[in-house]
Specification:
Elements (H helix, E strand, L loop, with lengths): L10 E7 L2 E7 L9 H8 L6 H9 L3 E3 L2 E2 L11 E6 L16 E4 L3 E6 L16 H9 L22 E7 L2 H12 L4 E9 L6 E5 L2 E3 L7 E3 L8 E9 L3 E8 L6 H8 L23 E9 L6 E5 L4 H11 L2
Parallel strand pairs: 8-15
Antiparallel strand pairs: 1-2, 2-5, 3-4, 3-5, 6-7, 7-8, 9-14, 9-15, 10-13, 11-12, 13-14, 15-16
């Protein structure tokens, strides 16, 4: 959770009503024009993340002057804000004894090398076999900030993307890691095999990403209802009609690398959604989260981990080198 250098001097009350945790504030002049989600997050200190506050607002648990509003509502002097923290619903996630390749683990954080085909957290159609199911069996202790279906999950990688992903084992660690992701200080480097021979050795793709207007499940480069997205790439090796890239994420939008590479005419090999249907086949996109670095939530020390490419990508590169 990010803490801005801002003096939050509002009147504040808290308590409980019918089992719900209740928070109330009256906005003062100094806080006028602040976004509602930011105001509440800062007022609660280190208790919750801004993303959790946004979920509460969306779900109607926050009212301003007795009316529901959106997260981007700008508060005014005298506004009366009420937050009714909902009681956690009982959702059973069954811990599953699924083998995990653990790169690092302590009382705050666990870093896992996720295999291809594993979904990160339960969702419709994927209630079992997920990384969360495996973590619930292995860890017993995960942060609760993201709710019952996504305990410990700070960030995600796609089902068929392999590589390093971190999870938080308590709320303090979750807040720290989420803040680092938000200010782009987490070092995330990927390896990807793409179609085409990229002639220049390095480059930056700075293009906003939003939902595809024709298919809401997909994303595209667009100026409409989009978010800033930046991907840096370096060519590691060339194979005629293919290029191996190292990519560094400056932002972390959904499907960012896959969308950006399609946008510049070099889609990922094996990508069933944004890729080409001809050429080399792979069971999922040739994308691997190879390096993950962050500041440890408790020690304050920078830590960096790396994971080798999966066997199928290594074999594919060997074939291309031998042509």
């Amino acid at each position: 959770m990010l803490q801005d250098e801002m003096d939050m001097d509002a009147d504040f009350n808290d308590g409980t009503v019918q089992g719900q945790e209740l928070h109330e504030w009256t906005v003062d002049a100094d806080s006028s024009k602040t976004r509602l989600d930011k105001y509440i997050t800062e007022s609660l200190g280190e208790e919750v993340s801004r993303s959790q506050v946004q979920l509460w607002i969306t779900d109607g648990h926050v009212k301003v002057n007795e009316e529901p509003v959106k997260s981007n509502y700008k508060v005014s002097q005298g506004d009366h804000i009420v937050l009714s923290v909902p009681q956690p619903s009982v959702v059973e996630i069954i811990p599953e004894d699924i083998p995990l390749e653990i790169a690092f683990e302590d009382r705050d954080v666990i870093v896992v090398n996720k295999p291809r085909g594993m979904v990160v957290h339960p969702a419709p159609g994927h209630s079992s076999g997920t990384l969360v199911n495996a973590l619930m069996f292995h860890c017993k202790d995960l942060s609760g900030i993201n709710g019952e279906l996504r305990p410990g999950i700070v960030h995600r990688i796609d089902k068929d993307t392999t590589g390093l992903i971190m999870a938080a084992k308590n709320d303090k660690a979750h807040a720290s890691l989420a803040a680092q992701l938000k200010d782009h200080s987490v070092n995330r480097r990927y390896l990807a095999l793409v179609h085409g021979n990229i002639s220049h050795d390095q480059g930056t793709i700075d293009a906003p990403i939003g939902r595809d207007a024709q298919d809401r499940k997909l994303y595209m480069v667009t100026d409409r209802n989009s978010k800033h997205a930046v991907t840096h790439f370096t060519v590691v090796e060339r194979f005629g009609d293919y290029s191996l890239l190292e990519l560094k994420l400056e932002t972390g939008r959904t499907h960012q690398i896959r969308v950006h590479m399609k946008y510049i005419g070099h889609p990922l090999v094996g990508d069933p959604v944004y890729g080409k249907s001809k050429g080399i086949k792979l069971n999922g996109q040739a994308l691997h989260a190879a390096v993950l670095g962050f500041v440890h939530p408790s020690s304050g020390q920078y830590m960096e981990f790396s994971a080798p490419m999966p066997k199928d990508m290594e074999e594919l590169l060997a074939i291309l080198r031998g042509r």
